[in-house]
Structures are given as C-alpha cells and as structure tokens.
Specification:
Keywords: Membrane, Transmembrane, Transmembrane helix. This protein is an all-alpha fold and about 60 residues long. It has a domain of about 45 residues. It has three helices and no strands. The radius of gyration is 14 Å and the shape is elongated.
Length: about 60
C-alpha cells in the first residue's frame, strides 16, 4: 500500500514538474508511476541537460539563492 502511494505521488509530482518545464509530461508521469521516486535523479539530470542545451555553451548563468 505504501509503495503504491509513493509511486502515485511521484507520478503526479513528475507530471506537474514536466508540464511546468516543457518536457514530455505523459512520459515522465508514466515513468514515475512505474518506478516511483527512483526516477527523480534522472528527471533532474534531464531537466538540467535540456536547460544547458537551450542556453548554449557560451552563456553563463548564475543562480542567486
């Protein structure tokens, strides 16, 4: 029961995050439903690679926290 709930919540989270970052929402939601939170590191890596590809190699971005 707990594992099913974790998979469902991670699928919902990944779906929403993929929608906000213009990625394949259905694909990430399905992967979250199948593999649960194990997909999160791959999602963040894919999101970062997509951002770096869109910016190009010569642009410099600084994150202010």
């Amino acid at each position: 029961m707990f594992i099913a709930l974790c998979c469902l919540l991670s699928a919902l989270t990944l779906y929403i995050q993929a929608l906000t970052h213009a990625m394949g929402a259905k694909r990430w939601g399905a992967m979250g439903l199948l593999f649960g939170p194990l997909v999160l590191p791959m999602f963040f890596t894919h999101k970062r690679m997509k951002l770096l590809k869109a910016q190009g190699r010569t642009n410099v971005s600084m994150l202010v926290r």
